[in-house]
């Protein structure tokens, strides 16, 4: 996961594969559940629905067998995201909501804000803007309990996207993108920085400020030397007209 956040999406897959192989060899169910879920999270970050779904389903089956409620919950969230992103919106959202409820029941906090952000993203792409805004607000509130939260930039980026989607104040949306970009840069979260730059770049393009759009997005995209087939990098290259 750290490899992905730092801007090395292909290295992240290599590490996930190595970790999962090692965990399978150990024969310890809890270690394997951890490795499966973190591997699924890496593929979710890369926007790879099928691999996310398969790994999440495996961790749910394993965790039910050994009564690991924490990993069942997180597995449900990731599987639900993959289903929704593949077009099975109702089943995916239902699974995500179940996973979130189960996660809260464990008393854990770490992945709740991230899960809410994934739910907001699902609602955004379904055109359910008010629900997406509610999930984003809950993610921001939840993350305040976890100072310096690692996914914070994405919450503000999503909020900006949602403001634009419901034709709200463009200036407020722009401020969300700028704040998100600042957080990502301060944290060294290059993959999130790219997402923020693309969101802001798309807004700049709509404003007729195409030179600023290209300069901003190119400046971040050129820092990547891998992961060119991932969803985020493809979106960035399309914006620059490189594909």
List keywords for this structure.
243 residues, mainly alpha, 13 helices, 0% strand
Which parts are unreliable, with pLDDT below 50 for 5 consecutive residues or more?
none
pLDDT average, as an integer?
A: 95
* Overall helicity: over 70%
Q: Whole-Å distance between the termini?
A: 27 Å
Number of strands: 0
Rg over C-alpha atoms, rounded to the nearest angstrom: 18 Å
Q: By helix and strand content, what is the structural category?
A: mainly alpha
User: Treating each run of at least 4 consecutive H or I residues as one helix, how many helices?
Assistant: 13
Strand content: under 5%
Oligomeric category:
single chain
Outline, from the CA principal axes? globular
Largest sheet: none
Task: Note the run of SSEs as H and E.
Answer: HHHHHHHHHHHHH
Structure notes:
- The protein is built from 13 helices and no strands.
- The chain is globular and about 55 Å long.
- The protein is mainly α.
- 49% of the residues are buried.
- It has helices at residues 2-5, 9-26, 29-45, 49-66, 69-85, 89-106, 112-125, 129-143, 152-165, 170-187, 190-206, 210-221, 231-239.
- Helix 5 packs parallel to helix 7 (112-125), helix 9 (152-165) runs antiparallel to helix 10 and helix 12 (210-221) runs antiparallel to helix 13 (231-239).
- The model has no long low-confidence stretch (mean pLDDT 95).
Blueprint of the fold:
Blueprint: H1 2-5, H2 9-26, H3 29-45, H4 49-66, H5 69-85, H6 89-106, H7 112-125, H8 129-143, H9 152-165, H10 170-187, H11 190-206, H12 210-221, H13 231-239
Helix pairs in contact: 2-3, 3-4, 3-5, 4-5, 5-6, 5-7, 6-7, 7-8, 7-9, 8-9, 9-10, 9-11, 10-11, 11-12, 11-13, 12-13
């Amino acid at each position: 996961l750290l490899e992905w956040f730092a801007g090395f999406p292909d290295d992240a897959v290599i590490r996930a594969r190595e970790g999962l192989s090692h965990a399978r060899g150990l024969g310890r169910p809890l270690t394997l559940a951890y490795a499966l879920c973190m591997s699924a999270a890496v593929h979710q970050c890369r926007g790879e629905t099928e691999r996310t779904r398969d790994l999440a389903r495996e961790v749910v089956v394993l965790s039910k067998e050994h009564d690991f409620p924490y990993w069942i919950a997180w597995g449900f969230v990731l599987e639900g995201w993959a289903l929704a992103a593949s077009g099975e919106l109702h089943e995916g959202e239902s699974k995500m909501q179940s996973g979130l409820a189960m996660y809260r029941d464990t008393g854990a906090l770490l992945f709740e804000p991230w899960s809410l952000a994934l739910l907001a993203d699902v609602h955004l792409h379904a055109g359910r803007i008010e629900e997406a805004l509610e999930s984003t607000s809950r993610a921001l509130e939840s993350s305040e309990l976890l100072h310096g939260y690692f996914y914070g930039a994405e919450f503000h980026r999503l909020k900006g996207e949602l403001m634009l989607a419901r034709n709200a104040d463009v200036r407020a949306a722009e401020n969300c993108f700028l704040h998100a970009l600042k957080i990502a840069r301060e944290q060294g979260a290059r993959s999130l920085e790219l997402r923020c730059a693309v969101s802001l770049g798309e807004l700049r393009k709509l404003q007729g400020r195409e030179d600023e759009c290209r300069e901003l997005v190119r400046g971040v995209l050129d820092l990547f030397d891998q992961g060119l087939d991932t969803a985020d990098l493809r979106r960035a290259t399309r914006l620059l007209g490189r594909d």
